[in-house]
Design a protein that fits this description.
5-stranded parallel sheet; 3-stranded mixed sheet; oxidoreductase activity, acting on the CH-OH group of donors, NAD or NADP as acceptor; Rossmann fold; 2 domains; oxidoreductase; alpha/beta; single chain; globular; Mannitol_DH_N
Length: about 500
């Protein structure tokens, strides 16, 4: 059955469908970045509110700023912006069609339609999922990268920007001029202090062309920090076939695990949906939740994905099944990461490691190693290196963390141990492969990338451990290196 408003009543028994009248929904949110994670996470929470006949004036208008977003828009429009979510547990599956998205802004150069949509008085939140590396952060200083070519373009052409942030600044300028009022900017990406980072990006960009507007944004808009969590693989032929097996023809279905978590700082300048009534948590101390998730789950993904790529293990569940990669995750997480993570209500770091072990090991979630290993230049610096610094400062263990960094350096050389080629998988892949090749003979070349490691290159304990592990990996293989660490 082709998915559409008209066919909802005819979908197979057992499929949960919207019980609300979608024609009565009105928009309140523009969400930029309509990938699988947003549709399986934030959009689901809103859908569940609508199922309770609550907050019906907060529907989502989707948006994107890249040319490839146009294809996604066409697919979504053809099925009335509905999404089939397929929950995959180790021993069961279920399907639910969500209807919280009611439109998708046309993709145009200069982003005029997006700017006007965000300037609509009905819109009170602009949310984003644009990946950790999408916020124009200088990796060396962690400040705003005002020299990036996209940023320089938007500062020079504020009325026809390239980036999501330039479009937001342009829309806020219109709202201020028209007396409409501010909006909440809500980052839903895996960044610690994601709201603070979004504020930094918007205010800094605005200041490059309109300092008065920048001051208004800083004073009037709000940027709540949040922690988001749900494993949502990319969609490919297998996922489309799975939807058809259930009885639904959906061009862009989403598979996901049974676990979801969303912890949000309650700082919304123009109102918000009651997401807590659908299972989200509003909390003052989002940082502690963020730190646990980012340092164990997100960092844990990098712990296993890099050796997985080197050893040609295709999925995250396959990595966990591997006798040494799965064990590497547990030992690094328990011995070297958990000591620097605080408990949150109802969850100790050690219990969280067990939870993540179980989630990573779910064989029904076909999350590719390649997807998880993407953009290591952002993910290692954001997820792993803060723990390295904490451990060094407190006299903690760092041998396994140094091994993980050595695995990344080996992966970035661009070949697997079976001789196959690793396709480019990082925005800075060209540079990384050159340095990784040099590091094969001189490991310190890798740590001398100041934009990634800063002064860690000068720390003898870390650099000596890294050098030792990378030498072992190249001489004897990743498996041998992991075995040596596990026996230490």
């Amino acid at each position: 059955m082709k998915l559409s408003n008209a066919t909802l009543k005819d979908l197979p028994d057992g499929v949960i469908v919207p019980e609300y009248d979608r024609s009565k929904l009105t928009p309140g949110i523009v969400h930029i970045g309509l990938g699988n994670f947003h549709r399986g996470h934030q959009a689901w929470y809103l859908h569940r509110l609508f199922q309770q006949k609550l907050c019906m004036d907060w529907a989502i208008i989707g948006a994107g700023v890249r040319a490839y977003d146009a294809a996604q828009r066409e697919k979504m429009a053809a099925q009335d912006y509905l999404t089939t979510l397929i929950e995959l547990s180790p021993d069961s599956r279920s399907a639910e069609v969500t209807g919280s998205m009611i439109g998708y802004v046309p993709i145009e150069e200069g982003n005029g339609p997006l700017i006007e949509q965000m300037a609509d008085p009905a819109i009170r939140i602009v949310a984003l999922t644009v990946t950790e590396g999408g916020y124009y952060i200088d990796p060396a200083t962690k400040g705003f990268d005002s020299r990036h070519v996209d940023i320089l373009h938007d500062a020079a052409n504020p009325g026809s920007p390239k980036t999501a942030f330039g479009a937001m600044v342009a829309a806020l300028k219109l709202r201020r001029e028209r007396g409409i009022g501010p909006i909440t900017g809500q980052s839903c990406d895996n960044l610690q202090g994601n709201g603070d980072i979004l504020r930094q990006t918007l205010v800094s960009l605005a200041r490059m062309s309109d300092p008065v507007l920048a001051d208004w944004i800083a004073a009037q808009c709000s940027f709540p920090n949040s922690m988001v969590d749900c494993i949502v693989p990319a969609t490919g032929p297998k996922e489309i076939a799975l939807a058809r097996e259930i009885g639904i023809e959906d061009a862009v279905p989403v598979t996901h695990e049974s676990f979801r978590q969303w912890v949000i700082e309650d700082d919304f300048c123009a109102g918000r949906p009651d997401w807590d009534k659908a299972g989200a948590t509003f909390a003052d101390d989002v940082h502690t939740y963020e730190a646990m998730k980012i340092r164990i789950l997100n960092a844990g993904h990098q712990v296993i994905a890099n050796p997985g790529e080197i050893l040609s293990v295709e999925t995250i569940a396959g990595c966990m099944e591997h006798p040494r990669i799965g064990a590497l995750f547990r030992k690094v997480a328990l011995d070297e990461i958990s000591p620097h993570v605080h408990a949150v209500p109802g969850m100790t770091p050690e219990a969280y490691v067990d939870l993540i072990d179980s989630r990573f090991s779910n064989p029904k979630i076909v999350d590719t190693t390649r997807r998880v290993a993407f953009d290591g230049s952002s993910r290692h610096t954001g997820f792993l290196l803060p723990t390295v610094r904490d451990a060094l400062a407190k006299g903690g263990q760092i041998s396994g963390l140094a091994l993980v960094e050595a695995m990344w350096a080996r992966m970035c050389e661009g070949t697997r141990e079976d001789g196959s080629r690793i396709e480019p998988n990082d925005p800075f892949w060209g540079t990384l492969t050159i340095v990784a090749a040099e590091a094969k003979a001189r490991p310190m070349a890798w740590l001398e990338q100041k934009q990634l490691y800063g002064d860690l290159v000068d720390n003898a304990e870390f650099s000596d451990a890294f050098t030792r592990w990378l030498t072992v990996i190249w001489a004897d293989g990743a498996d041998t290196a992991m075995q040596a660490y596990l026996q230490s």
